[in-house]
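Subject: sequence -> structure tokens, single chain

Hey, anyone have a minute? Need the predicted structure for the following. Not urgent.
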Amino acid sequence: SLISAGNEIAGSAFTNDGRTAAEILEDAEKMVFEIADRGSRGKKGFRSLKEILPAAVDRIDTLHQSDGDITGISTGYNEFDKLTAGLQPGELIIIAGRPSMGKTTLAINIAENAAIGSKVPTAIFSMEMPAQQLAFRMISSLGRVDQTHLRTGNFPDEDWSRINTAVQLMSEAPIFIDDTPSLSPGEIRARARRLQREHGLGLIVVDYLQLMQVQGNKENRATEISEISRGLKALAKEMECPVIALSQLNRSVEQRTDKRPVMSDLRESGAIEQDADLILFIYREEVYNKDTPRKGVADIAIAKQRNGPIGDFPLTFVGRYTKFENWVPDNYGDYPDERYP
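Reply:
Had a minute. Here:
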């Protein structure tokens, strides 16, 4: 098999079949990985339902015997986990919102909770933000140190203990960051395969979907987004882990009186809506109204969940620490407004 693959790879390099060098390299890597994984993953193709059932029943029994209601990776947010039972293997999760709503913050907080709290090996593809800036945000979040003070270096000496605590947590967490810009689905897949073989892989974060590119011919942006969306879903399935992809919303949101996002606000929404297993919108009233009494409250809406209910819940947004936290109801049980019974 290896000799055959080598000959095929060499032939592809010499033959001009319309593929780019990057596409040939991706296919070559895929062939080699498939040979390496064949023993553990088995041959692909049809399996009888009778052959599949024992593993399904074993999984049901494991879930039945477990104490908690979380069957996937805990996000660290109680209401989120109640609605989803955690992030499930093979699922594509979209976190969407307008700029400044906190998409990156929420995704990174979830990654922190998974990697630090549950030791889940986590890959972060940060195409918008440099890795060092991401590290600053994590130090701010985990150490509860004002991010502005971190960026300027103007903080009291006593904050050093908090910074050191955060750095210790981060250094022991299985978090891996790739800040290469404008990656294609194939490039992300190749890098994820490599990381999985070297360290294991339980969660992937992509920030953000519209910054990805497609190799080869480009018909229009909607077609590209469709290919990117399909590629991320295929990645989740191949890696057998959740993939969180951040997505921008259309500017048309700004023209409405009610600026809470709806499904049609997703940029090139058709493919994303179809491929995603879970779609989550972030809305913070204070972005549009600085005098709102709901300052510090983020409305999280699960607008689609393929295998569970949809619903809304609030989180507390602590901007100075780049952190979302579980909402603590005021007045002995009252939620921030009438939207949450």
